[in-house]
């Protein structure tokens, strides 16, 4: 806990301190298009708002007079040790936010000892990201292609590049109704900012013989949209790799059951940061029923609205094994590249350590529902 006390009374160095301040700074830096793409949600942003609101529905009931001089944030997840129960969520197109792209985020995660999940639609290719931090824990997030050969090729490349898990995102068969992006006339897809993994793929190159920008863009869009995808297709993925497969984007307990029954290795309770189905349940509210259904068979992660140490604590108390953060670290990347992401992670770590200590716990596994009071 040493570093916490040495910082008391120090002046800040001008970096933002709160999630909201990072967001404000990022807004000053970015043009309206990219900022809107990053910050906004789908539809009327009901789900985006609910993701935050849900955390206000619970208060922490701390325990006192326990020895909390030694707080351990470490957790084990899918055979890896994480320095705290937090991962960097897959966020595509990071080149529109900072020139260091996903490389900056990957390096910051690696030095912090937490996993980075690289999106399918990254500005740097999955191989470049892996090479930038060979020792870092990295997961590859798969946007299913309607072309099985392309899906298989990407998974094989990820495995070969040293990724330790595949995250398959299942809430994105069609793109959500993102009003802000329509208003701004902005989509990073149009700019080919997320095309690296496609243009470097041998199967994709065969699919797109006429290698013009227009055709690449059309082929990516067509390949990503897959409203006909079902659980049967996911079984194909199971056969493609021996890596653990994490299913991201589950809210309904019956779907969680399906994922476990079909042999998948972890679940992320998520509504894509409120960017897909507007009106969908807040992740935190959907979490308990999924945890109950899964009953310890596989790890259950969650994301959506995590902004501070108390949020992480509450999600764990509701049954999450770990959480992911999306926008917060990308605001950090926007403001300061790798150093900005590092700062967001380390401030969250400091706050989380204090939250554990002040709530009276010294290890993640001690945290349970008895530490929460519903409002
Ligand atoms: C995302 N998210 C996302 N998810 C995914 O599986 N693949 C992707 O490529 C992306 N891309 C993406 C871009 C941007 C700009 C955002 C904000 C989000 C969703 C992401 O992984 C995560 O589920 C949410 O961001 C979590 O919510 P918070 O932490 O942003 O509230």
Tell me what you see in this structure.
The structure is a single chain. This protein is of the alpha/beta class. The chain has one domain (4-374): Aldolase class I (TIM Barrel), CATH 3.20.20. Helices cover 45% and strands 12% of the residues. The chain is built from 16 helices and twelve strands. It has helices at residues 2-7, 19-29, 32-39, 46-56, 101-112, 126-132, 148-161, 179-184, 196-199, 202-207, 213-224, 231-240, 253-261, 283-294, 309-317, 327-359, and strands at 58-60, 75-77, 80-82, 86-88, 116-118, 138-142, 165-169, 245-250, 266-269, 300-303, 322-325, 372-374. An eight-stranded parallel beta sheet has the order 4-11-10-9-8-7-6-5. A two-stranded antiparallel ribbon has the order 1-12. A two-stranded antiparallel ribbon has the order 2-3. α5 runs parallel beside α16 (327-359) and α15 packs across α16 (327-359). It is globular and about 70 Å long. The protein starts with a helix and ends with a strand. The protein binds ligand FNR.
Biggest sheet strand line-up: 4-11-10-9-8-7-6-5
Query: Spans of 5+ residues with little confidence (pLDDT < 50)?
Result: none
Distance between the termini: 31 Å
Count the DSSP helices.
Answer: 16
The number of domains? 1
CATH topology: TIM Barrel
- Compute the CA-based radius of gyration: 20 Å
Give a quick account of the main beta sheet: strands, pairing sense, barrel closure: 8 strands, parallel
Structural class: alpha/beta
Question: Which percent bin holds the helix content?
Answer: 40-55%
GO molecular function, one term: isomerase activity
Family: Belongs to the FMN-dependent alpha-hydroxy acid dehydrogenase family.
Active site: 272 (proton acceptor)
Binding site for FMN: 90-92, 119, 141, 169, 248, 270, 303-307, 326-327
